[in-house]
Amino acid sequence: MYIIIGGAGLLGLNLAERLIELGHTIALIDVDPTACHYAREQLGVMAFEGSTVSTELLLEAGIRKADAVAAMLRNDALNLAMVALAKYYGVSEILVRMRHRDFEQPYRIAGATHIISTVELAVTTMANAIEYPEVESMMHFEQGQIEVIKLSIPDNSQAIGRSLADIARDPRFPQGSLIIGYQPYPHSDLVIPNGSTVIELHSTILIVTKQNCLHKMIDFMKGAV
């Protein structure tokens, strides 16, 4: 895919680096000549010096052929203008970094297909790390209604030695939850389990559950035999 990233700050550069690793072609736009020089020399990407809301520069960067645009500037107003221009030029996937929630609806109206609140993401991640220290990682879907968590099985867990089918039948297992991934030991491949998969000592699982079931799910999995 050909992807244009507006903003060569820390997030923009890291996003570019990750997308390059995935095999995509990247063009960066930033007003900072030093950032553009770094992007060219260290990442090997095309970097255009100037405003991300300059139509001339966007056309020079190839926005008409872009598969996706990511507006990663620190200024919501500039991000909003870039989103609107990307929509105008027919870009199908438009991602935007949001700093203030007041811009969420304007971003949607302007044509953003994905809105990422960096502040909210950081705060939520930190709060979850404090509230749920047992959880290695957590992802949120549908405004936090659905959670996907990665959880290591404690040594004395009541889940050890039981199949997923047996666990699902346990009345203490939160209804509507599902174990969707299983890693039998550290550094092994994550596999898609089935009902006959047996939870082993030192294994790790991926669970889909509702936000209001998190405590119950964690308590169940770490509960002593």
Short account of what is shown:
This protein is an alpha/beta fold and 225 residues long. The chain has helices at residues 10-21, 33-43, 55-60, 76-88, 104-110, 118-131, 164-169, 214-222; strands at 2-6, 25-30, 46-49, 68-71, 93-98, 114-117, 135-141, 146-152, 178-183, 204-210. The N and C termini lie far apart (51 Å).
Please describe what this structure looks like.
There is one protein chain. The protein is of the alpha/beta class and 225 residues long. It has helices spanning 10-21, 33-43, 55-60, 76-88, 104-110, 118-131, 164-169, 214-222; strands at 2-6, 25-30, 46-49, 68-71, 93-98, 114-117, 135-141, 146-152, 178-183, 204-210. The strands form 2 sheets. The chain has a 6-stranded parallel β-sheet with strand order 3-2-1-4-5-6, sandwiched between helices. Strand 2 (25-30), helix 2 and strand 3 form a beta-alpha-beta unit.
Features:
elongated; four-stranded antiparallel β-sheet; single chain; 225 residues; alpha/beta
List the helices and strands and how they pair.
Blueprint: E1 2-6, H1 10-21, E2 25-30, H2 33-43, E3 46-49, H3 55-60, E4 68-71, H4 76-88, E5 93-98, H5 104-110, E6 114-117, H6 118-131, E7 135-141, E8 146-152, H7 164-169, E9 178-183, E10 204-210, H8 214-222
